[in-house]
Amino acid sequence: MMKKLTALLLAACLMAGLTACSQSDSAEDTGSADAQETETAGEAEDAAAEDTAAEDAAAEDAGERTTFTVGFDAEYPPYGYMDENGDYVGFDLDLAQAVCDLRGWELIKTPINWDTKDMELNSGNIDCIWNGFTMNGREGEYTFSVPYVDNRQVIVAGEDSGINALEDLAGKIVGVQTASAALDVLQGEDYADLTSSFAALQEFGDYNNAFVELQAGAIDAIAMDIGVAQYQLESRGEGFKMLDEPLNSEQYAIAFKLGNEELKDQVEESLMELVADGTFQSLAEEYGIAEYVCLTADGEASAEEAAAEEPAEEEAAEDAAAVESAEEAE
What we know:
The protein is α/β, with parallel strands linked by helices. It contains ten helices and 14 strands.
């Protein structure tokens, strides 16, 4: 009897052990399957991420873009400024929007401090400087588009100031925008004598502040671009005048980071489309600068360019005549 009882107990223990082992093996199999499933899902996510990165890299290599960031002076009408609705508008900004519409880009308008424009461009914060930007003398610092506006630097003074010519600026305080083409002109060798005759050359962050000081009598005159001067005089009404004698002539172009020929070519291609379909001229008329633009659909030179070419053509004709006379004499 005792032997039978012992045998039954041993059999029960054996069965319990086999059941436990079976459950353990099942749990291990389940855990292994779960781990394998998790590993497979992780590999799929990694593969998807790699595919996305590859697609982004391919798009970048193909030169595709979705945005175009323009850096501009927000107080430089009529090229770029804030209107009464709080929107940034202007000839250059509207032109940039038209380019983006053609290329399917989103335009990002980024106001910048004019004296930090180079840092903004070289750091990649902006794609270009498009805001009445003078190209003359800066060709080695940027990659420029074709010039699109003929500009002149002029002097604006009070109507009753007695300032009627550049020589009348002697002993006067003249205002100018910081880091502007007008400042470069007045600090250049060609106008060293004129500038040295000023009582002071005072720099301003923008021309709106300069006009406030001019109206208050704190300064006597302002050196600035003719398009901006004309806009300011028309919007402010009487009390100011523009001298007939300009400081110099120059041209505006879109400035890209030096060497960025690809983006320049894309923007320039669309710009010429806007010239061809009349959008360029229409915007110039809307902003009152039609007489200053120099891009035409038929490729004709602007009046200023033509005038600049005339002396060279006359000189060439005179040289040819001189050679012919010398040959006849021989």
